[in-house]
Design brief:
The complex is a heterodimer of chains A (about 60) and B (about 800). Chain A is an all-alpha fold. Chain A is about 60% helix and about 0% strand. Chain B is of the alpha+beta class and about 800 residues long. Among the domains of chain B are: about 50 residues, no CATH class; about 90 residues, 2-Layer Sandwich (Alpha-Beta Plaits); about 120 residues; about 140 residues, HAD superfamily/HAD-like (Rossmann fold, 3-Layer(aba) Sandwich); about 110 residues, Calcium-transporting ATPase, cytoplasmic domain N, CATH 3.40.1110. Chain B is about 45% helix and about 20% strand. Chain B has a 7-stranded mixed beta sheet. Chain B has a 6-stranded antiparallel beta sheet with strand order 8-7-9-15-10-13, with no helix packed on it. A 6-stranded antiparallel beta sheet of chain B has the order 18-23-22-21-20-19. In chain B, helix 8 packs antiparallel against helix 12, helix 10 packs across helix 11 and helix 16 runs antiparallel to helix 26. The chains are: A mainly alpha (about 60), B alpha+beta (about 800). Chains A and B meet through helix 1 and helix 2 of A and helix 5, helix 8 and helix 9 of B.
């Protein structure tokens, strides 16, 4: 059953990595604006005349 | 009006306003004005026509077409506005009130298609901010502002933005603390399960290992996440007040110490999971309470109303100067629609000043040369020159901000229910804790200490501390849904305690400048056309309203025209002579007893009747009258008392209405009421109410557009919801009842827990179950009860 020590060590380490990732996201301002990206994703890339033919396939 | 072409309404392709002429057409699209048309042409010319595909009529109407960003060429002003600048890169954050749809977002993030010197532009939609990174060698800030103006997104640059410091740090830190507490809570829970489910004899080594690991996890919870409770408790002790943070800190400390001693002495498993859960839930409660409205500012003062700079004339040259540097004796130039920032003497030009923001009086007043014009007025005629007699901060209007009401500390008002109760709660808790310690001390001192700590743990007012934040947060979102925005959760309880209501008139209970027009007398179509033609020459608001009221007529050529400002118009059209204006102007003597503003009409010496302008009150004003039963209702108006007879039906008693009140008078009136022991609610709208709003226990700014300027206040109410005010007040009272009930519930849990605790036999499992259970009960009860109350008051 000594494997428990290793398993708990692994799980805590993993959880710490996620916590660190969250801290990084928070510090780098990724959670500052949670609304605008949801609108931005709905906007299409501009269709210029040059690549209009591509879109016609749809 | 039988002509079909008039009945067909075309709306402007850019802004959606109704087009009154057909003279602005581009690419077969109709526009209401030259401004809208030119925005369209700029966008179309840059291949950005897709702007119009995402939403119909996304633009802002553009009736004003002069640019006013000269002051952005002044380095001293610009440097205060920039976020960052170096040799070639500048970053600036601009507030753009018009941001409202996906078209705005799309267009503003394509700024580099207009000017390649703009590297990057990003919109923060809720804050209505635009962050731009640009090369200032190729594009100055002034050019950037002008570009934004040209495409219909005028940045609002005000003095307060210059001074304002972003204070987003507080909330970010709280989120991190919640993350850490949640992380530890989860791990500790898992590690505690084996203990609760029972470990066999040969697994006892694991028990110690889990115990030590739990202690490691509680360290950041106590010293990082829960630190503020100790700081606050210590500060309260020093000030000799008992705040709810004191029993909380005591609970956290006892939990921690007992866990450490039990684990290290191998006498038990400790309460690590209860401790982590407690801190986690408390922090979540704190987070819920912190609701922020990014697009609304509650802290505005005159600085956000005044321009950043003013044009100062030295000799023949004009130069923009920051407001703070404007000194007495300087000559300033105020153009059409600009605000006079300091008390000044009129030197040159025709001044027609709209003081609606300062006095509440909607009709502009004429000023003659040499007269002193007080700060805060808006020039509505052509450019004028003035000599400053007082610096900006000492002017008549801005002096109000030197009043002690503005320097007073914020939270000196009422005590909230939980603050009052927590004092008694703490005392009772300490008595029970020491009582059980003494009871056991002489028979079994170990058991005494066990009982003492167990009482402090179990009675730790977690549920009590959570009931207020969760109830108030639910109430806030109900208010929010009804277009009533509160600064913070405290205001709900203060609303519930109100017993006197004071209202401003213009802009608050009556709608800004819109008055209903009615003709008294008979006018033929021809005569109406004559009046329309004469009035369309005048910029006086009453003339404009008459034109609007009469509708679309073909304008006849006016051969002779003379306007005596503030009195009336004489016009010669074809062979008819028209006289329009006040009684004194038209008949030569003042009319007596006319209750409302009126414009008399005389054609070729025949008196035809008059236009009557009646003040329109906000929809729902009749509901306000009902407030008289439970509250003392007062009216304070900066205006004249010609509406006294109309208003008496709402305010019942004549002596409750006060007219001709200066901003200082209003403040003093509120203060006098408060000295009589009243809790005063003030409803106002303009700068003239700022003092009263600040002095009152709850100051509500009423506005038609929450993004527009509103003075510093505790809450902002959208004019559309004005009639719901009685429901809001009742709902606030319901909310306080919910808090009280949830306090009873949490007290019941405490008593159940205490019955175990005083015996000294508190198993960690009971603590670990009781704490989250009471928390969940409180959260679900408050949320449901608040929603039920809102339904009862018809707010959802």
């Amino acid at each position: 059953m000594n494997i428990i020590y290793f398993l708990i060590g692994c799980s805590v380490l993993l959880a710490l990595i996620f916590l660190a990732a969250f801290f990084w996201a928070q510090r780098s301002g990724q959670n500052d604006d949670l609304y605008t990206p949801s609108m931005r994703i709905l906007l299409d890339d501009d269709v210029t005349d040059a690549d209009k033919s591509d879109t016609d396939h749809f | 009006m039988t002509n079909d072409t008039i009945l067909v309404k075309t709306s402007c392709y850019h802004c959606g306003d109704e087009c009154s002429t057909t003279s602005f057409v581009a690419d077969e699209k109709q526009f209401c004005c030259q401004g809208c048309k030119s925005v369209y042409q700029i966008l179309a010319g840059n291949g950005l026509g897709s702007y119009y595909n995402y939403n119909e009529h996304p633009g802002a109407t553009r009736t004003r077409v002069t640019k006013r960003f000269d002051y952005l060429s002044e380095p001293s002003i610009v440097n205060d506005l920039l976020d960052y600048t170096d040799d070639h890169i500048t970053i600036v954050t601009l507030y753009i009130p018009h941001i409202h749809c996906s078209s705005c977002l799309w267009l503003l993030e394509q700024l580099n298609r207009f000017n390649p010197a703009i590297h990057y532009s990003r919109v923060d939609f809720l804050k209505k901010q635009l962050i731009v990174r640009f090369d200032h060698r190729a594009c100055s800030l002034q050019q950037l502002a002008e570009l934004l103006y040209d495409i219909g997104y005028e940045p609002l640059i005000s003095l307060q933005d210059v001074i304002k410091k972003q204070n987003a740090a507080g909330k970010g830190n709280l989120v991190q603390r919640i993350a850490v507490a949640g992380f530890c809570f989860g791990n500790v829970m898992l590690l505690s399960f084996p203990e609760y489910f029972g470990l066999s004899a040969f697994e006892q080594t694991f028990k110690h290992f889990f115990g030590y690991l739990n202690i490691v996890f509680t360290l950041p919870v106590v010293f990082f996440c829960g630190r503020e409770y100790f700081v606050s408790a210590f500060r309260n002790l020093k000030a000799l007040t008992l705040h709810i943070d004191f029993p909380l800190a005591l609970g956290i400390a006892v939990l921690f110490i007992r866990t450490v001693t039990e684990v290290s002495a191998h006498t038990g498993a400790g309460y690590a999971d209860t401790l982590c859960g407690l801190v986690f839930f408390l922090l979540v409660g704190k987070f819920v309470q912190q609701k922020t409205y990014h697009h609304i500012s509650f802290e505005r003062d005159y600085r956000s109303f005044f321009p950043v700079a003013v044009q100062v004339l030295t000799g023949d040259t004009e130069k923009p100067i920051p407001l703070a540097q404007v000194a007495t004796g300087q000559r300033i130039l105020i153009r059409h629609n600009e605000i006079i920032p300091a008390d000044a003497i009129l030197l040159k030009g025709e001044a027609l000043i709209d003081f609606s923001f300062v006095t509440g009086e909607a009709i502009p007043v004429n000023k003659t040369l040499g007269e002193i014009i007080y700060a805060g007025g808006r020039q509505t005629g052509d450019a004028i020159e003035l000599e400053v007699v007082k610096p900006v901060s000492q002017s008549y209007l801005t002096q109000l901000w030197n009043n002690e009401a503005f320097t007073r500390k914020q939270d000196s008002g009422m005590k909230t229910f939980s603050e009052t109760i927590s004092k008694y709660f703490t005392v009772a808790l300490l008595i029970i804790a020491f009582g059980s310690l003494l009871a056991w001390l002489f028979t079994d001192y170990r058991r005494g200490i066990d009982a003492f700590t167990a009482v402090l743990i179990i009675a730790c007012p977690c549920a009590l501390a959570l009931s207020t934040p969760f109830t108030m947060a639910a109430a806030l979102s109900i208010f929010d849904r009804n277009l009533f925005y509160l600064k913070n959760t405290r205001i709900v309880e203060q609303l519930a305690g109100i017993d006197a209501i004071v209202m401003d008139k213009t802009g608050t209970i009556s709608i800004g400048n819109s008055k209903s027009v009615a003709i008294q007398g008979q006018l033929t179509e021809k005569q109406k056309q004559l009046v329309y033609s004469a009035c369309s020459n005048s910029i006086h608001p009453l003339s404009r309203m008459i034109c609007q009221f009469l509708g679309n007529y073909k304008k006849l050529p006016v051969t002779g025209y003379k306007e005596i400002a503030g009195k009336g118009i004489t016009a010669t059209i074809e062979n008819d002579i028209l006289r329009l204006g006040s009684g004194a102007f038209v008949f030569g003597f003042a009319e007596g007893g006319a209750p409302n503003t009126s414009v008399h009409v005389m054609v070729n010496s025949h008196y035809l009747g008059y236009f009557q302008f009646a003040q329109e009150y906000r929809a729902g004003m009749e509901n306000i009258g009902c407030l008289n039963d439970n509250y003392e209702l007062f009216l304070l108006s900066g205006d004249h008392d010609h509406e006294r007879t109309d208003l008496v039906k709402f305010f019942k008693a004549d002596k409750r209405m006060h007219f001709n009140q200066s901003p200082q008078d209003k403040l003093d009136f509120i203060k006098a009421l408060q000295q009589k022991g009243r809790q005063v609610l003030m409803l106002g709208d303009g700068l003239n109410d700022s003092g009263a709003l600040k002095q009152s226990d709850v100051g509500i700014a009423v506005t038609d557009d929450v993004n527009n300027f509103s003075p510093g206040c505790d809450a902002i109410l959208d004019g559309k919801s004005f009639g719901k005010l009685p429901a809001f007040l009742r709902f606030a009272k319901d909310t306080v009842t919910v808090v009280r009930l949830s306090f009873l519930i949490s007290l019941t849990y405490n008593i159940i827990g205490l019955s175990y605790a005083v015996t000294g036999h508190l198993s960690p499992l009971i603590a670990a179950i009781l704490m989250p259970l009471s928390t969940v009960t409180i959260i679900s009860f408050t949320t449901l009860a608040t929603h039920f109350a809102a339904k009862k008051r018809k707010l959802i």
